[in-house]
Structures are given as C-alpha cells and as structure tokens.
C-alpha cells in the first residue's frame, strides 16, 4: 500500500491527451482529493479520441465523430485547462517548468508524461517517399481513407502493408474493405501471421480466411527496399527473394517505439520506456509516466488493458489516497477484423511440462488450444468460437485448479464451470483444497 505524501491541492500537468492521459483525467475528476488545478497539453489537434477505433473507422464501419471520448466543453465544465495542438518540447526539472513548441511556459507541481509511442520504421531505403504511411492517429487514418478513395495509381490502386501483427492486419483489412478493387498485399517477416499471439494452426486458419477475402499474404517476407514511381511517389516494394510488388501506397506497421525523447532530454531514467516504480513515479518524485511511454520492471506496453490498471493506481496516488502498487499481469489479445474471431493469451510454444489440450473442427473453422501446468491454465489460443475466452482468461489469472473439469474444458465455459461447481460442492474438492 502506498500513501501519497504531498498535498492534493497542487497544479498537475498531464502531457499527452491520448488514451492514457484522458483516462487519468476521467479517473481524477470523480475524486475528492483531485489536484485543485489540472492542465492537459496534447500535441494532436483533436481532443482525446478512442485510438482503438481507428481500425473500424478505416474499414468504413464507424463514423469519425463516434471516436471522440470527450470534447473541449467537457474539459471546461470540469475546470480543466486543455491545450491542444502544442508539443511539450522541454522540461526544466530544477524549477519545475515546461516549455511547448509554441513558446508557452508552464509551471507544475506534479507532471504526468502520457506521451504514448510512435510507429517503428524499418531501416530500408525508400521509406521517406510520398505514399508511405503509418497507422497511429486520426490524420493517418484520414490519409489512408483518402488514398483508398483516390488511389494514386488509378484502377483501384495497390497497397502493401508491412507487418503481419494486429495493427498490420487491421490496416490491410481496412484498406481492402474501403478500396473498391484495390489490391492489398500484406508482408509478414515471420512464418505466420500474429506469431506472438497465435500458434501455427490458428495462424493458418486466419491466413486462409483473409486470403479468401482477397488479401495477398506473403510470409517469410524480407523487406529490401521501396522503389519510387515515375511521379516520385512510392511505386513498388522489393523483397530479398527478388519479389517486386507494385505499390502506390505503403503502410508500415511493424511495431511501436515509446515516445521518450522529452524524458531523455530532462535526464530522467529511460531504458526502452520511461522507467517507473509501482506508483508510476519516475526517477524524479514530481514526475510520473504511464501508458505506452513508460516501462515497469522491464515491460513496455502496447494494449490498453494494463494501462487502465496503471491509471487507477496513479489517479489514486495523485488524489492522496492509499492504494496498492501497480502489478504486472498478462493481457489477452483480440483482433478487430469483422467476421474473424480470435482470442489468445499466455505463451505460444508449449514447454515440456505443459499439458496441451486441443480441439479442431476444420469444417466449422473452429480451433481451441489450451496450455496447462499442474492443472492450471497458462495459455489459450481460440479461433472461431471465442465466447469462452474471457472465462479461460479469468481462470488463468485466478490460478484455479481446473483438474476437476478437465474433461469439459475444451467444451467451453458453461460445461467446465458446471463441473467445477459440482466438485466444489463435493466434500473432497480438489479445487477447494487448492484455494
Ligand atoms: C489503429 C490502432 C488500433 C489499436 N487497437 C487496439 C486494440 O484493439 N486493443 C488495445 O488494447 N490496444 C489497441 N491499440 C493500442 C492503443 O491504442 C494504445 O495502447 C493506447 O492508445 C496507448 O495510450 P497512450 O495514452 O499511452 O498513447 P496515445 O494514445 O498514443 O497517446 C499519447 C498522446 O500523447 C501525445 N504526445 C506525445 N508527445 C507529446 C508531447 N511532447 N507533447 C504533447 N503531447 C504529446 C500524442 O500526440 C498522443 O496524442 C491500437 C492502436 C492503434 C494505433
């Protein structure tokens, strides 16, 4: 338990009006001990929006307005100063003052860095060419939507997405759905799609489904260079095996890099991310960091689930409440491609002590694989019917001994839970004894 040791009536400045920064504000406004003055500075021109929904926006499944989390009026109503379209360029820790690229200076008592991350870029020639995009913010999504409606190459155009992880897949499917007759290729360096979340069977099912929809998928793809077209824009992508793919639009989605330049300039402790302790406090007790820009016990972040838990801890801490420290926990993965259902968590490759339970119905495109250690679930890969995914995840987090329901485990949550309940009611219940 950590008790904040400073008065909550201070000026709190939050750098970044993204998912983490905004959620922190939402958590603070309801707290009696909230800092008396809160200022939020965001580089993007729009007030906080749901970044996760950029994928359905690109795919044409959502409207732009539906992404907004809160507008500027809401901030004003909460008595919070919101400064948008300005980038914090420097922090002077000695005098606790920051400067923005617009020349504004602002004193703080407490500072929260919620600067997120930026798309990683592979070191290949041609990446600077016009027509090469990333997929991180509203401007990126709007540029891709514009391209899909006005392809530079005409006749539907041809796009190449580099990266076969969650983001690359969502970008490729979004472009395919938006672009009428556009040829969309997806390059994956590994031997299978989503290799960090899926085993070979599930990745194979996903690949077949996406191929059937018309995506052109290349695994083992080693990117060599991008070629300029006659108009000086990107015209093609070359792979190390000699393949040349025509491309008048390229989307780079190979991963993310935490935005730490500001923290580094301020001489905070930075590895890959800004190093924080379990109260999300950096090496400077007046400065906190959370979200994709921070690093806790060697871990950096790319999904919102752990970030929401960080927000709870930091909000309580900033409001002077007693709170348990942040604890690392596994996260589950879902893919936001309509018509494709997958759910995965935990390790992908079984080790010799794992018991592997698997079920595959190729006709239905249904696949479930569970990894258990001493009766406890450590990992799951579900493709097709994923309804029981959250139940499996709960059992894994709680470390429940699933021995009593082993026979029904692959049938899903309802059957397995019924067996567990039955065994809990019996006088010699292994699950009870373990708990
Ligand atoms: C297309 C897409 C789909 C995604 N889908 C999922 C999903 O399905 N599930 C999931 O869990 N996660 C998903 N994510 C990841 C999720 O969006 C991020 O984990 C989350 O946004 C991280 O929040 P954050 O606040 O740390 O960073 P961000 O949301 O990126 O916010 C950081 C903000 O800080 C601003 N900033 C940076 N530097 C400065 C500065 N110096 N001064 C002022 N402002 C600054 C940035 O402009 C940005 O607005 C997706 C991401 C993308 C791009």
Automatic annotation (TrEMBL):
Residues 11-298 form the FAD/NAD(P)-binding domain. Keywords: FAD, Flavoprotein. It comes from the Bacteria. InterPro entries: FAD-bd_OxRdtase, FAD/NAD-bd_sf, FAD/NAD-binding_dom, FAD/NAD-linked_Rdtase_dimer_sf, Rubredoxin_C. SUPFAM superfamilies: FAD/NAD(P)-binding domain. Signal peptide: none annotated. Belongs to the FAD-dependent oxidoreductase family. This is NAD(P)/FAD-dependent oxidoreductase. It comes from Billgrantia campisalis.
């Amino acid at each position: 338990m950590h008790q904040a040791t400073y008065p909550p009536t201070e000026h709190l400045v939050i750098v970044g009006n993204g998912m983490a920064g905004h959620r922190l504000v939402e958590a603070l406004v309801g707290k009696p001990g909230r800092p008396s003055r809160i200022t939020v500075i965001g580089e993007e021109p729009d007030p906080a929006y749901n970044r996760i929904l950029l994928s359905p926006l690109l795919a044409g499944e959502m409207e732009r307005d539906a992404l907004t989390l809160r507008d500027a009026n809401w901030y004003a109503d909460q008595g919070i100063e919101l400064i948008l379209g300005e980038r914090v360029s420097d922090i002077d820790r000695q005098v606790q003052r920051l400067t923005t690229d617009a020349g504004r200076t602002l004193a703080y008592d407490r500072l929260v860095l919620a600067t997120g991350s930026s798309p990683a870029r592979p070191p290949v020639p041609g990446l600077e060419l016009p027509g090469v995009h990333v997929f991180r913010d509203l401007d990126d999504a709007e540029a891709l939507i514009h391209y899909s409606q006005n392809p530079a190459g005409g006749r539907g155009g041809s796009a190449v997405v580099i990266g076969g992880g969650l983001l690359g897949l969502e970008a490729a499917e979004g472009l395919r759905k938006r672009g009428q007759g556009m040829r969309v290729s997806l390059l994956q360096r590994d031997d299978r799609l989503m290799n960090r979340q899926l085993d070979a069977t599930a990745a194979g099912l996903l690949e077949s489904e996406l191929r059937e929809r018309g995506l052109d998928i290349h695994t083992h793809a080693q990117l060599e260079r991008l070629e300029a077209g006659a108009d000086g824009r990107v015209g093609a992508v070359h792979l190390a095996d000699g393949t040349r793919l025509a491309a008048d639009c390229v989307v780079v989605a190979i991963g993310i890099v935490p935005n730490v330049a500001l923290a580094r300039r301020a001489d905070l402790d930075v590895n890959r991310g800004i190093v924080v302790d379990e109260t999300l406090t950096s090496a400077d007790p007046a400065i906190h960091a959370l979200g994709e820009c921070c690093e806790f016990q060697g871990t950096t972040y790319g999904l919102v689930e752990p970030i929401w838990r960080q927000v709870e801890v930091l909000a309580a801490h900033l409001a002077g409440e007693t709170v348990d420290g942040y604890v690392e926990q596994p996260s589950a993965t879902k893919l936001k491609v309509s018509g494709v259902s997958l759910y995965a968590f935990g390790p992908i490759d079984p080790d010799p002590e794992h018991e592997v339970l698997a079920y595959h119905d190729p006709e239905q495109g249904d696949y479930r694989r569970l990894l258990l250690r001493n009766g406890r679930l450590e990992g799951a890969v579900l493709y097709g019917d994923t309804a029981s995914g959250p139940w499996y995840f709960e059992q894994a987090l709680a470390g429940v001994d699933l021995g009593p329901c082993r026979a029904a485990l692959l049938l899903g949550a309802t059957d397995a839970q019924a067996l567990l309940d039955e065994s809990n009611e019996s006088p010699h219940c292994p699950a009870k004894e373990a708990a």
